[in-house]
Amino acid sequence: MSVTALIFDLDGLLVDSEPLSRRSWAEVIAQVGYTLTDEIFVQMIGRSETEVRTLFEQVFGRDFPFETAYRLRQAHFLAALAREGVPPKPGAHDLLTYAIRAGLPRAVASSTSRAMAEGKLRSAGLREYFEIIVTGEDVPRAKPAPDLFLEAARRLAQPPASCVVLEDSVAGVQAAHAAGMRCILIPDVQPIPPEIARLATWRLRSLAEVPALLEALRANGNAPHQAGSA
């Protein structure tokens, strides 16, 4: 099956937003009297609001004021985003330029809100590359369910089997696998267990390596192959 479209995760894959996200959450959680550890934050990556709520209940207890913390965090992050911005990940601009030249349709599929997704893409200078953005507000289930990726494929008018997903998180790789899509795993902050990494079709070190992979697929008739681990 040839590659006819690319579907991108956002945080930690296209934009280097995880450090700002972690700082924002840590400061807000401290305001309501709790402490965010790196271990907890890593478990939050790629998860929906509902899943983060459940995680916080498990870690902090049912008395944790999630609604207040979530509202404060949204405002805190957007203010910090406007003030500081977030950079694109290395190779993002070159890969997206390559995809346009190669005639590959592109979509973003992220569990975050539309306001967050739009703000991050604009801050990183990547918004112009995408006509289609699917967020957690558009589907009933977030990653690791396949809904985001399947909706992106539907809007791209491409069969799921010919779409390639680019992901950095455990939940994202699981979602791509569940959607029946090939996946390029580019790990970021979250450790990827071997059993999850095996669900990805390829594992690369950065977005800068993706154009060469896509060119190799084109030269080989788009036959899938397993790349070496980073």
From TrEMBL:
InterPro entries: HAD-like_sf (IPR036412), HAD-SF_hydro_IA (IPR006439), HAD_sf (IPR023214), PGP-like_dom2 (IPR023198). Signal peptide: none annotated. This is HAD family phosphatase. SUPFAM superfamilies: HAD-like (SSF56784). The lineage of its organism: Bacteria, Bacillati, Chloroflexota, Anaerolineae, Anaerolineales. Pfam families: Hydrolase. Coiled coil: none annotated.
